[in-house]
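Side project, low priority. Logging it here so it doesn't get lost.
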Amino acid sequence: MDHLLLLVVFVLAYVLGSIPTAVWVGQWFFKKDIRNEGSGNAGATNTFRVLGPGAAIPVMIIDILKGVAAILLVSYILPDNIYTESQMITFEIIAGFCAVIGHALPLFAGFRGGKGVATLFGVGIVLFPVAVWVAVAVFALVLALTAYVSLGSILGALAFMVSAIWIFPATHPGLIGLAVLAAVFVCWTHRTNIKRLINGNENRLWKKKASNN
C-alpha cells in the first residue's frame, strides 16, 4: 500500500507538470499553437514574444505553481507518521523532478513542452527557500544586461547549484544532488540556445538600443 501511494504521488506530480499552460492559453484564447510560433518553445518566454505579457504572466505563474503543488502532494497524500523526515524530503525531491519532466515532456501536449525553468523555480521555492533567490538575482541581472532569457536561465541555474552546495549548503544529500541535476537539466534543455549564443544569433527578449558611440 505504501509503495502504491508513492507511485500515485509521483504520477500525479508528473501529470501536474504536464499541464501545458502555454499551449492551452495560446489555443483557447488566441487560436494559436505556441509551439508553431516564435522559437517553438511552450514556455512563458515564447508566450511573451508571441502573445504578449498578458498571456505570458499567467503562464509563468501557473508553471511555477505546478512545481510548488508537486512538492505539497507529498505531505498531503503520504502519512508522515510512517516515513522519516529524510525520506519525506527524498520523496519531495522525486515529486518535484517528476513535475519538471512533465513540463518538458507533457502528457497532454504530445510530449512537446517547455524547458522546465519556471516549474523548477517552483520546486526551488519550497525546497531551497534561500538559495533559489540567488538564482533569481543572477537571472535578473543577466537579463537586464543582455536581454537574453536563455543566458540568464543557464547562469541562474549554475548560480543556484553553487549557492545550494557552498553558499547556503543543503543538509540533505538528495538536495545537493537535485541542485546539480537542475543545473545539468537546464543546460541540456537550452543546448540549442547555447549554440545560438555562441554563433551570435540567439533571440533577445527585447531589442537592445544601439550605442551612439
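Brief comment: The CA atoms of residues 158 and 200 lie 21 Å apart.
Revisit when time allows.
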